[in-house]
Amino acid sequence: MATNRVNFTDWLPDQPGVIGVLTNAENVFPKQVGYGPIPQEEDYSEAASENLNSAVAGKTVAGAVRVFAGSSTKLFLMDSSDLSLDDISGTTYSATKNWKFTQFGNLVLAANGAQPVQAADLSTTTISFANVEASAPTAKYLTVIRDFVATANQPASNPNRVQWSGINDPTTWSSSAVTQADFQDIPDGGEIRGITGGEYGLVLLERSIVRMSYVGTPLVFQFDNIARNLGCYEGQSVIQWQGTTYWLSDDGFYSYNGQQIEPIGAEKVNRYFWATMEDSRLDEMSAAVDPFRNLVIWGYGSNDNTYRLLIYHWITKRWSYAETNVNRIADFSSPSFTLEALDTINANLDLIPVSLDSRLWLGGKMIFGGVRGAKLVSFGGSNKEATIETSDLETDGRFSMITLAKPVVDGGLASVGVASRNNLSETPVFSNQSQADAENRVGLRSLGRYHRLRVVPSGSWGTAIAVDIEIQPAGMR
C-alpha cells in the first residue's frame, strides 16, 4: 500500500481547511521546514513590590547590562547578585498600564504618559530615575531618531505632537535653532499611537502613517504622510526590529521596511485575531521580538480568558500561535553572572529555576521573555505541549479509510489522532491520541470522506515536519 506524506505547511486560520493548509499550529513556531517547539515560561527574577507591566534592558558603553521593569506606579532595577527587583523610582508615578523605554548613550529613558520623561544613568554607581530635564515633555511614546530623542503623544494637551530633544543631547528640550530641539503637531490623522526610530522616524497615528526625515535647520525634520486612511489601532502593538516596524491596524497586521507597507496578516490571521481578541482587554496587548528564532510576537487577551501569542516568522512570512500564562511579553538582554553570583541566588545550582544552559546566564544576549505578576520570566524551559492539525484530506470526494500514520518529528516522538467525517458541514471530532510504537507507527481505522490528523510531538523534539499516512478507497454500507 502506498504511503502519502502530508507536510506541515502554512497555518492559515482565515482560510478553509480543505485547501491544503494546517488547521491548527498551537505552541509551535514556523521554520523553513516544519515547526519548532515554544519553550515553557520560567521565573527569572524575584518578586517586585508591585505587579509588573513592562521590561527592558540597557547596556552601558562599556558593555555592562542592566535589566529594568515597570509597574503601575514604580520603576525597578534587577540586582544580578540575587535577582531581586529594587525600586529606583524618582517619585511615586501616576498609575499607568504601560511604560515605554529607549536608550541614548548611557541614559535609559522611560515614558508613561503621566510624568515628564524619566532617565537613569547606567554609568553611575547608584542608578535611579529622575526627570531627564525640567522642561522635558510628558508623553506616551519615545524613541531615538538619528541623534535625537523623540517623544510622541502628549495626552493632556497635544496627542498629535512629536517633540524632540537637542541634537545629541537628551537633556535639552526647549525649542532652539542652535540645539535643534523643537516639536511638530501633525494636523491630520488623529492621535499618535506609536513612534519608531533609526535613520528616519515613523509616526503611527489613528488614521495615517507619517515618515520623519532629518533635513537640518530651520525645519530639522520633514514630515511626509505615506499612508492615508491606514493607521494604528493599538499603540502597544507597535514593535521594530532591524529597521522594520510592525503594528496592528484597523484591518489587521502590517509592516513597513522603509520602502513599502506590507499587509502581513491579510487573508492569513487577521480574521482569526479579531474573532479571538477580547475587546475589553485591548490595552493588555504587548509585542516583542525573539531574535534567536526570527519571530515577531504579539500577546493579547483572548475571549476564552487566556493570554494568547500570535507568532510571525519574518523569514518565511508564516504564522502560528501559543498559549501562555504571562501578563505581558517583552524582549530584553541578560546581565552577566559569575559563579559566585549564582551561588548567592541559590547555593544548590540544581534548584535555580532557569537551566544553566540558558542564554540568560551568558550576559548581554537578547532573550524573549515577559512579566507574570510581580516577576520577570523567560521562555527557556522544556517544550510546551504542541498540537499540529492537518488540512482535510480526501480521495476525490470518495469514501476512504486511513489505516496507518507515521509522524515525522526530528529528535522526538509523537502521538496521533484522527477526525473523519462524511460531510464538511459536520464538526470534526478527534479520536483519542495514540502514541507511536517503537517502529514509529500508529495504527488507525477511520472511515469517511474527509480526514484530519492531529499530531502531538513529545520529548525534546526539534522540528515537526510531516505525517506519513496510508489511506485507501473504501465502500460505505
Q: How would you characterize the overall build of this protein?
A:
With 477 residues, the chain is mostly beta strands. It has two domains: 4-31 and 385-473, Sandwich (Jelly Rolls); 40-383, YVTN repeat-like/Quinoprotein amine dehydrogenase (Methylamine Dehydrogenase, Chain H, 7 Propeller). Helix content is 3%, strand content 47%. The protein is built from two helices and 39 strands. The longest helix is centred in the middle third of the chain and has 7 residues, at 270-276. The radius of gyration is 25 Å and the shape is elongated. Mean pLDDT is 92; it is low at 337-349.
CATH topology of the largest domain: Methylamine Dehydrogenase, Chain H
Number of domains: 2
Could you tell me the mean pLDDT? 92
- Give the overall shape: elongated
CATH superfamily of the largest domain: YVTN repeat-like/Quinoprotein amine dehydrogenase
Stretches with pLDDT under 50, minimum 5 residues = 337-349
Question: How would a textbook summarize the main sheet?
Answer: 5 strands, antiparallel
- Tell me the total number of β-strands: 39
Task: Please tally the helical runs, counting DSSP H or I stretches of 4 or more residues.
Answer: 2
Indicate the CATH architecture of the largest domain: 7 Propeller
